[in-house]
Amino acid sequence: MRTYLIRRLPSALLVLLAASFLIFTILRLVPGDPATTLAGPDADAATVAAIRGRLGLDAPLLTQYAHWIGSLLTGDLGPSYAIGGQTADLIGDGLGATTELTVAALVFVIVLGTAFGVLGATSRSRWLTAAVRVITTAALAVPPFVSGVLLVLLFAVALPVLPPGGRVAFLTAPDLAVQYLVLPALCLALPSAAVLGRYLKDGIERGLAEDYIRTATAAGIAPRRLLWRHTLPNALPPVVTLLGMQVGNLLGGAVLVEAIFAWPGLGQLAEQGLQRRDYPVVQDLLLLLVAVFVLVQLLTDLVHAWLDPRIRWE
Amino acid sequence: MTELYPFTPSGPTRRSTLRAAGGGALLLGLGLAGCRSAVSNTSSSPQGASAAPHRGGVLNVAVNADFTPALLFAQSGQSLQQRLIYNTLTRYDDDLRPKPELATSWTYAKDGRSITLRLRDDVTFHNGREFTADDVVFAVKNLQNPVRAAQLRSTAATITGFEKRGDHELVLKLAHPVNNLFDLFEFMIITDPESVEDAVAGKKFIGTGPFKLKKWSPGSGLSLTRNDAYWQPGRPYLDGVELRVIAQADALISSLRSGQSQLSFDVPGKSIGVVKSESGLTISDYDTGAGAIYLGVNTTVAPLNDRTVRQALARAVDRDRLVAQTLGGYGLASAAPWPKSSPAFTEAHRTHYTHDPAKARALLKSAGHSRLDLPMLHIALPGETAIAESIQYDLKQIGVHVTLQPTDGATAQKKLISQGMPALWSMGHGFAQVQPSTLAVSAYPFNEAKNTSRYRSAEYTEVVQEAWTKPETDTAAANALHEKISSILLDEAFLIDLVVRGQLQVSAARLHGVTLNKFSYLNLDNAYLV
């Protein structure tokens, strides 16, 4: 597995380098710049030019790119141009918030997805199976900006039992933090949970039709034991790959969900950075997201190999 | 039992890992059961609440954007925290008369070329240092620095000399008389000079205001705590203020409706109906006219270089419908930029252009046009888009077919500053809420020397300069100049004002004593929760 990992590292680094160049170039092609944002609405051209000079934006593009990459390699992300504060702190804060949200959503995806999959595949009640189908279809079809608003209206305004938005850091007050997490995490998780549930349902149904299950059934092994100890573990490896892909979806979806629930994560930071053309923040953030995707892909493959020895023995 | 795979794992097995994860989740859930409620925890209120003012409670303010420290000395989209952390020298009352704040009194020289300020001697900064005349000298010089991007820099720049008479008396000497000095005094926050660079970098904010900074989390908002050494005895009543960034309009409204926030100035007009129906919320409209919606015209683009065509556009827009449909009924339909509180306001100017498509078509025809195709830039936000679409519909009725160019804020700002706007654009402007001359010397779209419309006129420059430099004592002459400025703005129509807006405040019914200054700085000196 170590050789497998080492073999994949150069390509991952190449992806990161190419991504950094693309991110830098595309960002510079977008009209507007941080200097005009900082100059204020009534600034004259001299003020804008002075600010541009101070930020180093008057240097050739390649010099700016080299400066950025050089800073990254030394671990110095520098100050944010327009938002304020150090880029590393901004990303650190946002990363903590987004990680919390993504992990909580992932827990929902796993719990709800497993419930949908197992109930959908094994329930003998037609009503229950139909209900699972309707719920998963709705969860897939309703976009987060609709489900988010509905969840807020129901649980925060009508009832109200949960806060409609904001965040308390998990390490500060876990009991409050969980309550702030529930709605955004659920909203973020619903589509992925539906996908996972359907995938798992198919896997379990296929597994239950296998010869060894029929043999075990004939041998008198209890159906519940067959499901949880034999069928489900065999259905898991492809589901884990899918789950890895869903992490990407969750990270992508977090941008929207963070806006709905005023969750101060990377999505909000990216939006603010883009709005103000805060190049250091946006560049570092996008590159970080690419790195996370690459890492998740690697980890997914490793976990897949851990769950399925045939891959590990290759 | 049948082993599916013939190996003996050395680490945790799949099964044990899955069990541990499930057990962990269960334990976490059980551990959190019966914990504090985040819902009841958010709307802190003082103990033993009654309707009378009293101490305690934390106010949660929902804002749709964080502030930008680099723009601390400029008016930007979010200036609420300015008067919470800092004080100003004076503040206007509703009739635009200056009232004392850090300056207790003032005397203008007869020739209007100097003003003597007497300052409070019982004020300290949050770091314990005493406030003196040196801090005012620094504040003025700071605003003269172009990097601060302060809109009132031209007024600050007229102060060319300082004469200290002790620690709490100061004479400001002017290069020439100006009649908007008290605009500057209300706009200019007094900061601790030593930490000013830290302030614009977002690291440290030290003022003399009623609240001290506890924490600024970029993108999340500001957490402020009571300044126990505030110079106003017994104030503020509140223990703290939280300014929370909630960018999405629906989320912001949910926060108000659920009681998580008790104050906001950022509810969009189209959502006001939802808020009106909430019994626990009240709506107040500050008639400050701190903002206005206008249709900008690039006067170098044919045929908009013809004043008749611009006047046709000014008659084509249904301002009343714009107020009713896109602003929730709040705002003053007006062809001139002035709010009712402005000395330049007249009803005749307000109604100079009323909705008259027939006359607009006739004007276009007299200029030799029956159909025009023009691009119009607007900021790609829901409220701004609704306004642009409304204008687009009205112009179409007179044969002007507008192609909308939705643009993000940063790009729009660059085009605004660099005079790079297309034929038409719709946006907002401020600075008509104070002395009328400030509009023409400080708001870029109206600037006589260089503006986005590329409009230049010797007459406009002369009138604006005269209005700005006329000593404020001569009211009749000042009014005559205001009349001239309004006439030029209306006749030339290089900026077509549509609606004058105040600040729309949505607050919990249990919140009292909130005010705003003319530059939308939030004043919570006397605010309390019941």
UniProtKB/TrEMBL annotation, chain A:
Record family assignment: Belongs to the binding-protein-dependent transport system permease family.
Family matches, as Pfam families: BPD_transp_1, BPD_transp_1_N
Domain of life where this protein originates: Bacteria
Entry keyword annotation includes Cell membrane: yes
Membrane topology: Multi-pass membrane protein
Segments traversing the membrane: 12-30, 101-122, 134-157, 177-196, 285-307
InterPro entries assigned to the protein according to its UniProt record, in alphabetical order: BPD_transp_1_N, MetI-like, MetI-like_sf
Keyword check for Nucleotide-binding: no
Identification of the protein by name: ABC transporter permease
Localization annotation: Cell membrane
ABC transmembrane type-1 domain sequence ranges: 95-300
Keywords associated with the record: Cell membrane, Membrane, Transmembrane, Transmembrane helix, Transport
From TrEMBL, chain B:
Stored PROSITE patterns: TAT (PS51318)
Record-annotated Solute-binding protein family domain positions: 98-439
Xref: Pfam families: SBP_bac_5
Protein name: ABC transporter substrate-binding protein
Organism annotation: Streptomyces castrisilvae
